[in-house]
């Protein structure tokens, strides 16, 4: 009996570790417990889960509604991003991007191929000097190197300092392994 209980506890602990994927901690994402504007009832404690087809979370931004700005970006500087979690799945491909149309289109600001999170969970994302000012959506996306090759995405509502002139051009983010 004691052995069965011990086996069950080990299995439950292992399952918890498997589900503890990665999420963006800073800037605090929409519906995050770290976001000071999110009420307790609206918090999503599964921000470290992948997008569909393995879950109900939709692209873009997990289907989460926009909220108040949680951070300010300054064009021509580097923007600090912190990830959180323990299951880096041997790295993979991640991108940091921005959207000015509520998340319909994203322009990649920084791409890391194959080695995302293998050298740590802190990043300095270079912001182009031509980044238009105004409200925007900052996003982190990740396709893991091992496992089910899932797509993860967290979004934070931000404000970009500067004049709202022009449009930002650059590569679109990679969206893979979801329906559509």
Automatic annotation (TrEMBL):
Keywords assigned: Signal
Residues spanning the signal sequence: 1-20
Protein name: Chitin-binding type-4 domain-containing protein
């Amino acid at each position: 009996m004691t052995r069965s209980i011990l086996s069950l506890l080990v299995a439950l602990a292992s399952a918890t570790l498997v589900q503890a994927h990665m999420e963006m901690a800073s800037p605090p994402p929409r519906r995050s417990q770290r976001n000071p504007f999110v009420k307790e009832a609206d918090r999503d404690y599964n921000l470290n889960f992948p997008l569909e087809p393995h879950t109900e979370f939709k692209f873009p931004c997990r289907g989460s509604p926009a909220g108040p700005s949680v951070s300010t970006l300054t064009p021509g500087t580097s923007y600090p991003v912190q990830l959180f979690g323990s299951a880096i799945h041997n790295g993979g491909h991640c991108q940091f991007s921005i959207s000015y149309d509520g998340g319909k289109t994203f322009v990649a600001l920084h791409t890391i191929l194959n080695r995302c999170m293998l050298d740590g969970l802190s990043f300095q994302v270079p912001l182009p000097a031509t980044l238009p000012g105004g409200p925007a959506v900052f996003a982190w996306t990740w396709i893991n190197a091992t496992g089910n090759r899932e797509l993860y995405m967290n979004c934070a509502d931000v404000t970009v300092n500067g004049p709202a002139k022009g449009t930002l051009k650059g590569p679109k983010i990679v969206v893979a392994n979801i329906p559509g």
